[in-house]
Design brief:
- By secondary structure, this protein is α/β, with parallel strands linked by helices.
- A hairpin with a 2-residue loop joins strand 1 and strand 2.
- Helix 14 runs antiparallel to helix 15.
- The protein is built from 15 helices and 16 strands.
- It is globular, with a radius of gyration of 22 Å.
- Helices cover 45% and strands 18% of the residues.
Length: 393
Amino acid sequence: MTTETFTFTVNKTDGTARTGEIRMPRGVIRTPAFMPVGTAATVKAMYPDQVKALGADVVLGNTYHLMLRPGAERVARLGGLHHFMNWPYPILTDSGGFQVMSLSALRKIDETGVTFQSHIDGSTHVLTPERSIEIQGLLGSDIQMQLDECVKLPCSDEVAEKAMRLSLRWAERCRVAFGEQPGKAMFGIVQGGAVERLRIESARELAGLDLKGYAIGGLAVGEPQEVMLRMIETVEPHMPKEKPRYLMGVGTPDDIVEAVRRGVDMFDCVMPTRAGRHGQVFTRHGRMNLRNARFAEDTSPLDPESKCTASNTYSRAYLHHLVRSNEILGMMLLTWNNLAYYQELMAGLRKAIGEGRLESYIGEVKEGWAKGERDSKAEVGQHANNMAMASEG
């Protein structure tokens, strides 16, 4: 059941992990949730109804890309992002800060905002906290993110502190610009690099703004997994327990499982879609690269137990052929499989938390990945032996 207001309810906990629901006018987001990334108003290589059928309650759109093309004002004139991309369910938009850091050849950050050159045509743009919220409003986003400064790791404590403090000041400006929007939410973003005291200060200051939700940003930007997990553990006690927690840009299935274990509710990552377009698949048996020659005559499907047609119907040999031939269908099927696996994993985590058996579920999941890796190595060895025997013959 939807609601006219934005609400978050924690239904069950298992240790620090929790399962719950975000309710808003456009729908209910079951947490822990994985949000497929629809950067440019499309989840690449997927139909919107496919994405929904897999179990996604919300997708992510990108302020940076959409402001440059087709333009936020144009999207608004065309009826808003939901209508534009035929996705009538919740949409979260990120603020554009990360893309400015990673894609812009020339950029200048000051108290006002960020001045940068478009990676498309070199044109100059200014993104302030107020303009970021305005763009997200023009798009019609249901959950809007504050503009922040995201730094690459590793970095010095001084660089991390400067960016964290600027992000806090921008959070306040975004809060004022967002105002009161019934049924919608603005989330703050905890920054502070890999410095525990900075992360704690950022989380506490943001909690004082009484926002609808809180994200942990500036991770999955080059640091080892152990650093990321330590930062989550550092921040979690200082994040309001009655508000949703969103770990931005993360990640691998293992990253997600470990973050859920530590109390995170929401995730997004380009990994399942990007990997699918490049021949990589995620399954209950771990990761596979369909470009590998050992799949050329493998008649088994990716996962006969999956409910997804891409996973249980097409042979690995056929998928290998599509990938090696650079056929669009290969990208579509592998992306479909990957998003199906991610949503199956999230459904499994929600169920396990609800039943109080998260640790045993995680053990089963990780054993499946490990067994797949062992079997894969054995198959590679057998394939090499067969090739050697054929060449000798």
